[in-house]
Every structure is written in C-alpha cells, then in structure tokens.
Model the fold of this input.
Amino acid sequence: MKSIITKLKLNNKHKTLMATHAGYSRWCYNWGLSLWNATYIDGYKPNVRKLREVFTNHTKPLYPWMKNLSSRVYQYAFPSEWFANI
Done:
C-alpha cells in the first residue's frame, strides 16, 4: 500500500473560509442531533429527509449568515448513516 501526503498552502482568505465552513458543518450537525434526540424522546420516529426539510424551510431563513456559505455543507451534515444507530 502506498500513501501520498499532500500539504495545502492556503492564504489567509482560504484559511478563514475553510474554518467558517467547518464551523458551519459542526453547527448543522449539532442542531440536527439535538432535534433528532428531542423528536425521539417525544415518541416520534425521526428521519433524515424530514430533518433536512425542516432545516431548509424553517431554520435556514432565521440565520442570514448561512446564505453566504455553501449549501453542500448542511447536506453532508445530515447523512443517514450517522443517525442510523441512535
């Protein structure tokens, strides 16, 4: 097996952008996990499709700073495999 190590040479703008997207992804995951747990505790059976729908239609409009970031970040923050064993 062979591995290749790659080092990114980022300027300050790229570093800030990557850190912002990483924080956004973490925020989305934590939001989704808390909603998932609250829904499960209330006796409902949550699913990822509904979670994404609630986020897109109800939560995202409340936070205007999210419009400046990529929509793929929150799409990848709610993969079905992560919530399968909860």
